[in-house]
Amino acid sequence: xxASSSQKxxxxxxxxxxxxxxxxVFIVDDDEDVRASLVWLFESAGLAARSFASAEVFLAxxxxxxxxxxxxxxxxxxxxxxxxxxxLRGQGQGRTLPVIxxxxxxxxPTTVRLLQRGAFDFVEKPFAEGEIVAKVKKAxxxxxxxxxxxxxxxxxxxxxxxxxxxxxxxxxxxxxxxxNKVIAIxxxxxxxxxxxxxxxxxxxxxxxxxxxxxSINILLGEAKGNPL
Length: 228
Fold this sequence. Notes:
By secondary structure, this protein is an alpha/beta fold. The chain folds into two domains: about 5-155, Response regulator (Rossmann fold, 3-Layer(aba) Sandwich); about 160-225, Orthogonal Bundle (Arc Repressor Mutant, subunit A), CATH 1.10.10. The chain has helices at about 5-10, 30-45, 55-60, 80-90, 110-115, 130-160, 165-175, 180-185, 190-205, 210-225; strands spanning about 25-30, 50, 70-75, 100-105, 120-125. It has a five-stranded parallel β-sheet with strand order 2-1-3-4-5, sandwiched between helices. Strand 1 (about 25-30), helix 2 (about 30-45) and strand 2 (about 50) form a beta-alpha-beta unit. Helix 1 (about 5-10) packs across helix 10 (about 210-225), helix 6 (about 130-160) packs across helix 10 and helix 8 (about 180-185) packs across helix 9 (about 190-205).
């Protein structure tokens, strides 16, 4: 199986990334009994859990910035689950905070639309305890992966910022597959100068080979394209 660009980078380019904080299962539901039962269920499974009675309270808490996943009732008073999901997407959390919707049978068309918009999964009420715990654990695994990628990209953006303007021009052309001779002609500089700039780019970006440099560039491109 082919390794992804992220996997190649993790094995080839060591990044100094701080340890991740403990993950939390965030629960937003207006039903107090449901909130209490879900907190008990997740804590019984060894997971940290916090509950909120409304979308507004959850947003004001700023907890959505922390590692974890969100179990969100679709039908809550005030800002409903769908609106909260879109708000989180607009604030950039749609990439890293997996959302599992709690929905009734009649909500299935809406839930499908939200899945297409990037929601992680849904659980139909009434739900089995084993089912929701299993989905939450998968969501937390996804959160770990996504946050690791975000930290990688943040580190790579720092490295990119250390390049000079000329080095950025060389990087752009190298990762488009252009030969040193072609780059030299385009930039109006000597081929030897291109080779020097290319060497500086490799060192500053932490790439030992051209393949690693391509992998880094792909990750940076993914960040701009927001594919997750």
